[in-house]
From TrEMBL:
UniProt domain Rho-GAP: residue ranges: 1-45
Signal peptide location: none
Species for this entry: Drosophila simulans
GO biological process: signal transduction
Name under which the protein is recorded: GD14362
Organism domain of life: Eukaryota
Length: 57
């Protein structure tokens, strides 16, 4: 899946308001923001996922 498709699927679930329901007008900017984060995750989080090590006990 592309980052745009992932943003459409997961964006509204990551960013939502508890006080109001999300309108269709609010979904496009949310999806655009999540798409931006997905595309720029290395610059935003400054970590290379491939270099992380996880120990399994």
């Amino acid at each position: 899946m592309t980052s745009s498709n992932l943003a459409i699927v997961f964006g509204p679930n990551f960013l939502w308001s508890r006080s109001t329901s999300t309108s269709l007008e609010e979904i496009a900017p949310i999806n655009a923001f999540v798409d931006f984060v997905l595309q720029n995750h290395k610059d935003i989080y400054l970590i290379d996922v491939n270099q992380r090590t996880v120990s399994v006990d």
